[in-house]
Amino acid sequence: MILDLPLCANNSKQTSNLIVFGSIFIVNRLLDCSAALNRLVTSGAPAIVEHRAAVATSAVSSASVVAECVQNFITAMDSLKLNIVAVDQVHPLLSDLSSFLNKLFILPADFEGKTKMREWLSRLSKMGAADKLTEQ
């Protein structure tokens, strides 16, 4: 038997009736579904709705971080190709790239790109601002 019970977020009486009906149904059928009952009573939304929203949010944020990494990488490479080699000009570009690489949680902590960025930032911070990078 399928019941057609419209659920309206603005009508708390309908919502509370649905919760009472669901609770009675679970108790009468001797169902062991305490997690489902808890979700029905506390959040009022199926788990799949919440999980889909979380996945969509993380995918969007992950994609935007990847885009920022690519943008910062291209900017750093272009600056080197244009012979912009002063430490005070290169350090901020690599620092931005490093910060976005660290925000990208799909990469492991020991990812080679992250470790190389840390090494280069360490080297650059030991140099003077007026120093220039050379081919060596």
From TrEMBL:
Source domain of life: Eukaryota
GO biological process, one term: protein transport to vacuole involved in ubiquitin-dependent protein catabolic process via the multivesicular body sorting pathway
Pfam families (UniProt xref): VPS28
Keywords on record: Protein transport, Transport
Xref: SUPFAM superfamilies: VPS28 C-terminal domain-like (SSF140427)
Keyword Protein transport tagged: yes
InterPro entries named in the record: Vps28 (IPR007143), VPS28_C (IPR017899), VPS28_C_sf (IPR037206)
Coiled coil: none
GO MF annotation list: protein-containing complex binding
Domain VPS28 C-terminal positions: 61-136
Annotated GO CC locations: ESCRT I complex
Family: Belongs to the VPS28 family.
Name of this chain's protein: Vacuolar protein sorting-associated protein 28 -like protein 2
Native source organism of the sequence: Capsicum annuum (Capsicum pepper)
